Amino acid sequence: MKAVGLKRYLPIEHDESFLDVEMARPVPKGCDLLVKVHAISVNPVDTKQRAPKDEVEEEPRILGWDASGIVEEVGEGCTEFKVGDEVYYAGSITRSGSYSEYQLVDERIVGKKPSSLSFAKAAALPLTTITAWEALFERLAIDPEASEINKKSHLLIIGGAGGVGSIAIQLAKWAGLTVTATASREETSTWVKKLGADNVVNHHESLKEQLDAEVDYILCLNNTDQHWQAIAEIIKPQGKICSIVENKEPLDLNVLKSKSATFVWEFMFTRAMYETDDMSKQHQLLNKVSKLIEEGHLQTTLTETLSPIEARTIKEAHKMVESGGMIGKVVVEGF
């Protein structure tokens, strides 16, 4: 089968940062589905995994985690899907990725593709949607069914125009919250407003001075180190903070003590990486999101599409993500 892989971890401009390769087609066993990949999306985690380092792979390593496609074969333990089903998923960081014609993925982290969306539009959603859903409704413990209660609560999303922010705004508004999103350019401000943000503030300026009052929840999607002091200042007493961006310097948790504020991480690969007892919750939430899309509550966050899936277009997508200026998601479709 065709695939796009790497053997060395190189700057994206290097001729061999990605290679077009031929790989053996895998065979599904147990709870695995063999999916014929139709479209993939590139995320910051892709670029971080490819970031330059001295390692050399004996066999080409296949990156990529967002994907949509059609089930080609099923393992003997599969009960949720059958051959021919259209699916979307974010996979596992510990397994071979989606930059390949066929991919194995555990059905417990796979959802039914929204029928109203193309494969490209669906591929833009899984990783960021799982991240946003888990961050809001599990880590921050917001009840998505309690819209009347949520109307009294204020959520700040730091980094609203990226992939996770773009879906988090929509999910938070569906749940009834007042949402303030940060954006620093005219085009990103327009984008987050279009998605439903009630207010927009600039994360390059003082957040405290731009907000009328402290907020109940903060979802940090951009540079935890840079925003940490501001986060501590603007969170309400007994408020909750969630970040998806790893820190480079130690975080001073003492600044939260007097407010009895909660801080929690979100990493959407945790369930698949550790095969947790509740791993199938990702299957359930992706199916729930499909339903919300069909009902018109959510929309895809796709903004850029490249074709076909090959080393050249994967390189281009990585460059776009690494630029730091992406709005929404970039998808590469078709082998």
Main beta sheet strand tally, sense and closure? 7 strands, mixed
What order do the SSEs take from the amino end to the carboxyl end, as H and E? EEEHEEEEEHHHEHEHEHEHEEHHEHE
* DSSP strand count: 16
Low-confidence stretches: none
Structural class: alpha/beta
Shape: globular
Name given to the CATH architecture of the largest domain? Alpha-Beta Complex
- β-strand percent reads 25-35%
Radius of gyration: 20 Å
CATH class of the largest domain: Alpha Beta
Fraction of residues in H or I helices: 25-40%
CATH third-tier fold name of the largest domain: Quinone Oxidoreductase, Chain A, domain 1
Overall pLDDT level = 97
Determine the number of helices (DSSP H or I, runs of at least 4 residues). 11
How far apart are the first and last residues' alpha carbons, in Å?
Answer: 10 Å
What do we call the CATH homologous superfamily of the largest domain? Answer: Medium-chain alcohol dehydrogenases, catalytic domain
Number of separate structural domains: 2
